Recover the amino acids of this structure.
């Protein structure tokens, strides 16, 4: 083992040196791949791998795709807000990997660049966004993607001088993409044109949402702009379907249909949500396009990173609408597919629309049948390829290759579900079993809680849990257990917010037990380590919520420490290091606390807890600076900031700052 100026990793594990990150580059490829496998279950190792890739991309590039693909996944997690890495060096290597003949590496390299740009943009890091965008283009990266991401970032800006000024800037970027598309031919050029239409439609929806509801002319202008972009995109999409790109075309059509549904909701004539023909048709178009795109769930569009909710409502000036917009969409969708949107309010179907509702439900059922048959054909192809792979390995039995065994078992299991559903096609319940319900109402509750609307969040969560408890699918499918656990953990955190600490603890403990049940089921099925780690990360988050509730609301620091130690055993990333520093500092172990803080990359994920850690260590200046950063979040709406200020005023970890005038200025009296 040879130190290379940072964290040296060999098969024995990570060793901290100077708080930096590096990998031992002279180990064999097999050893490197073994380390990569361990990153699935060892967060310290995963973070170190990501930092190594960012600091030494050229050296890492000598490894094969089996090393590089998971390394890129790790790198994205630590790069978005970093200032210390060479953008030109990283961009140059990412561009090189994006041209790899190994498709997963090429796709992941593109994805890494997109995530860095979007994350910096959404955090308001204008200089960082422009710096990496310039580096990407200098290295020969696709200019179209940079401009499209820049346009998405503009849409999420918390403040714009005027809607028309924003429109001018976005139009300029989209025009550049259209010019670049004109140099191409065929499907890719058409897809680029549709994407620019989609961004312009999002801009028009943003203008519609921000318009004065009493200014009918302004509302009409923005609504007409939405429709203009959707109509132009529809022509391109119809041509794409004829060219054989149906799946990609329908996926974009679903995203556009969601924009139309949100626009129709914004201009509805009554303040009370009432089902109308335009709302019904938009909802049907959205659901059918999602089925034709072969999405497993409506969440594929609703919670996509480039979807309307993520771009417009989860950041920027529309954050106060994030919960209501989701709840309104859920209520309309529930009319056509109540089993796909659980926990939504029930809308009365007017008599003049009842026949149309039945007709649209029949159309959706036909799409469900078609999607099930397509899935059946695809599964049969996959099973045939898997069996062929087994036969080609004459020297090995199937039992000697557990990966293939797991894959074949999974295919047979899914094939059985599809066969049963198609056999009982006269029974709608069988077809509905093939769909995974959307988390739309849960995400609405989370948005409401973030905005300080605790009572709304609580009401939505209670209704959703009641419906899940009554649905037999909750007990028959893994998604049911996971969704119920997520509802309980969110409800627990919401109850903690409003001071009902004992009820909060009970909900959180129930969530922990449910996640343990889910983990056991996944282990029994032989699922991949990545799946298991995802559930363990959720368990860790719930333990952290228990610790925070015990410390802040119950005033029980020793109990809080016990919960935190359970969380620490499951995950050891930067967030957990900072929390660990808080607990060490609270116990008077200042040296251990400072050791844990070494190497932590300050980011929006840890600003608040960094403030707590430094306050507990008696370092007021640093604590106040991190608190200022937390309360200066350019993405946060007024309600979210007020909730954070209220929490800071009550947090015992910040008690040492309360007499400081700067603290009063930040959080208020």
């Amino acid at each position: 083992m040879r130190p290379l100026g940072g964290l040296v990793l060999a098969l024995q594990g990570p060793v901290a040196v100077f708080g930096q990150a590096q990998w031992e580059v002279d180990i064999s490829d097999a050893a490197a791949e073994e380390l990569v496998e361990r990153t699935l279950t060892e967060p310290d190792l995963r973070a170190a791998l990501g930092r190594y890739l960012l600091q030494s991309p050229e050296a890492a590039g000598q490894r094969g795709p089996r090393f590089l693909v998971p390394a890129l996944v790790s790198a994205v997690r630590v790069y978005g807000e970093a200032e210390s890495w060479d953008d030109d060096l990283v961009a140059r290597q990412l561009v090189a990997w994006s041209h790899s003949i190994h498709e997963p590496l090429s796709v992941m390299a593109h994805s890494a660049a997109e995530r860095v740009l979007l994350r910096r943009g959404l955090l308001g890091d204008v200089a960082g966004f422009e710096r990496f965008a310039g580096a990407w283009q200098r290295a020969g990266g696709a200019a179209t993607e940079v401009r499209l991401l820049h346009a998405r970032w503009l849409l999420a800006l918390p403040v714009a001088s005027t809607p028309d000024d924003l429109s001018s800037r976005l139009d300029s970027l989209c025009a550049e993409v259209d010019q670049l598309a004109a140099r191409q031919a065929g499907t890719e050029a058409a897809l680029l044109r549709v994407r620019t239409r989609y961004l312009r439609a999002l801009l028009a929806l943003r203008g519609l949402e921000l318009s004065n509801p009493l200014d009918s002319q302004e509302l009409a202008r923005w609504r007409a702009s939405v429709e203009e972009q959707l109509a132009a995109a529809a022509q391109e999409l119809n041509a794409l379907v004829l060219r054989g790109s149906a799946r990609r075309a329908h996926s974009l059509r679903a995203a556009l249909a969601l924009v139309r549904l949100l626009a129709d909701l914004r201009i509805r004539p009554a303040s009370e949500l009432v089902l109308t023909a335009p709302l019904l048709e938009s909802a049907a178009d959205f659901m059918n396009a999602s089925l034709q795109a072969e999405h497993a769930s409506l969440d594929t569009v609703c919670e996509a990173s480039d979807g309307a909710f993520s771009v417009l409502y989860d950041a920027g000036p529309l954050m106060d609408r994030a919960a209501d917009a989701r709840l309104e969409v859920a209520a309309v969708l529930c009319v056509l597919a109540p089993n796909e949107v659980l926990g939504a309010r029930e809308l009365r179907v007017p008599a003049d629309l009842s026949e149309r509702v039945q007709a649209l439900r029949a159309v959706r059922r036909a799409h469900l049948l078609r999607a099930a048959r397509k899935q059946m054909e695809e599964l049969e192809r996959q099973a045939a390829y898997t069996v062929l792979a087994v036969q080609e390995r004459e020297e090995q039995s199937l039992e000697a290759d557990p990966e293939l065994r797991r894959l074949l078992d999974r295919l047979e299991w899914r094939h059985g579900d599809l066969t049963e559903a198609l056999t009982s096609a006269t029974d709608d319940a069988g077809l509905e079993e093939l769909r995974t319900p959307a988390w739309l109402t849960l995400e609405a509750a989370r948005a409401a809680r973030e905005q300080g609307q605790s009572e709304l969040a609580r009401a939505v969560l209670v209704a959703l849990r009641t419906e899940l408890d009554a649905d037999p699918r909750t007990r028959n499918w893994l998604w049911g257990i996971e969704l119920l656990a997520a509802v309980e953990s969110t409800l627990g955190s919401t109850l903690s917010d409003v001071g009902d600490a004992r009820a909060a603890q009970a909900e959180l403990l129930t969530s922990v037990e449910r996640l343990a049940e889910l983990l056991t089921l996944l282990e029994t099925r032989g699922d991949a380590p990545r799946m298991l780690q995802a559930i363990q990360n959720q368990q860790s988050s719930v333990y952290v919520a228990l610790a925070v509730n015990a410390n802040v609301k119950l005033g029980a620091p020793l109990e809080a420490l016990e919960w935190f130690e359970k969380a620490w055993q499951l995950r050891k990333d930067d967030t957990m290091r900072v929390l660990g520093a808080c607990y060490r500092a609270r116990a008077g172990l200042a040296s251990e606390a400072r050791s844990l803080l070494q190497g932590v990359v300050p980011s929006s994920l840890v600003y608040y807890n960094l403030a707590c850690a430094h306050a507990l260590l008696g370092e007021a200046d640093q604590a106040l600076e991190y608190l200022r950063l937390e309360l200066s979040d350019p993405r946060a709406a007024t309600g979210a900031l007020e909730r954070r200020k209220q929490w800071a005023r009550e947090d015992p970890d910040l008690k040492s700052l309360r007499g400081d005038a700067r603290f009063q200025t930040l959080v208020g009296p």
User: Anything to note?
Assistant: The chain has three domains: 142-438, 455-567, 572-669. The CA atoms of residues 124 and 634 lie 6 Å apart.
